[in-house]
Write a structure and sequence with these properties.
Length: 245
Amino acid sequence: MRKLLWFFAALLLEGCMAYGQVYDKPLLLKHINPTNSLHVARREPANFQKTTSATWALKLAVYTVAVGGAGVLGGAAAGYSGYSEPIETAQGNALVQRCSIPDYSKFVLNEFGKRLKDSLPGWPEPIIDEEFLSEDSKYGGTTYLIILNVRRLRVDNSCGLLAITNGRMVDPSGQVLWEREFVYRSSDLSRPQSIEELEASNCYLLKEELYFAAEKTAADFVGHLKSEIPSNSEHPTIESATKRD
C-alpha cells in the first residue's frame, strides 16, 4: 500500500517535474571583441508531447504489472519510458498537425536574437542561423556561438505548457563561456493550463502560450547573460536533478 501511495504521488508530481540537471553558468567574460562574429543557432527541438488522463492510467496499469518483479522504481521507469513516451509523442504530433502548431524553437530563436541585439550594446551584431545546428557543425575562426536547445515541450493538465530550454555560449575554441536552463510552466504564472482550454478554438490559447513562453525564456537568458535577472522574473527552480534528456 505504501508503494502504491508513493507511485500515485509520483504521477501527480511528474506532470510538472523538470527532467535534467541544473545548468546555470554565468558568463565568463564581460567583453567580446567587436571584430569577432556572434552566431545564434538552435538544435532540432524535442518532440511536442501531450499527456492525458488516459496516459496516466496506462502508467498505472504498467506499474501494477511491473511492480511485482521490478519494484516501484522499475515499474515507474518501465511505464514511462517503455510505453507512455511514444503515446505522448504521437498525441503531441496529432495536435501539432490538427492545429498547425508553429515551431516553438523558432519563436525562442527569433525572440532571443532580437533581445540580444537590443540589450547588449557593444557586442557583435548577432547573426541568426535559421537552420538546425547538427552535432558536427563547425564554426571555428573567430566565431562566438550561442546554441539554443528546446529539450522538452509538453502540454498536460498538471502544468499546462511545460517548456525546458537550454542556452549555451561557446568561444571559437569550443570552451563553454555561459550556460543557462529555463523551465517554463503555465501553472507557475496562473496561466490557462487545462488541455481543454488550450486546445479550444483551434488551439488559440496554446499558440498564445507558446509565444509567451518564448518571450519569458529569451528574457531570462538575456538577463542572465547580463548577470541581472529581471526583478519580475518568475523562473522556477528545477526540482529533480536526474540524467539529462
